[in-house]
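Changelog entry: the Thioredoxin-like protein record was regenerated in this release. Current contents:
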Amino acid sequence: MALPPQFAGHRIGSATAPQTLEVWLDYVCPYSFRIYKRLRDVRQQFESCAFRSATYDHLVSLFTTDSAPFDRPLQQILPYIEATHPGKVKFIFRQQVQPWHPSSTLVHEAALAVEKVDPAKFFDFSDKLFEKQKEFFDVPLYNKTRHAVYSELADLASTVGVSRDAVLSLLTVQLGGEFLNAGNRVTDDLKLQIKLGRQNGIHVSPTVVWDGIRDDNVSSGWDLEQWKDWLKSKVHKQ
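Regenerated structure tokens:
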């Protein structure tokens, strides 16, 4: 499925890659966190070995030997795909707001605000949101105001190098004036995320879509070997 240019920060990999892996995720869903960690949990370790500029042979060696600069060979899905099928698959993070968790709307708005300020920080902030997800569960937020939660999310954005004030400005509901239910400056972007999920029949997170086709057989509990087996029939050889 297409990715509007204003959401380019949601993509990992080349925009021209012929095949697409999309995963619909909710920042306050424990199962989303589980699959997200399997997708890209060791980001800092990749950066420490110059992952983005590593050669194809070097990347493959990280998955096939014990000589990697870590405790064990890499076990994450996205680096494995790029190492074994370079340039063939792009990954798109799809935001799945789940309204039975009231804070879901707020954290997804924050991610969109971060992307507006600096698209390159979307995944850094997503990493941080998942890491801190329990702080935004129902019980910790039960007695907090919406503005207080926005302030905490803006503080969190600052930890990944994004302007706190810029993020909070996008999240703040403008008080006064004629319109009392107009939302904030990322409301329209959030609507687009929700409309896309609805039109494609996405009901829960995580949900995996390959080349536009939903596959409900994929589990958040899969390890790398199970992903490898699944990918064998998915990635085109040419």
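Residues 42-73 have pLDDT under 50 and may be disordered.
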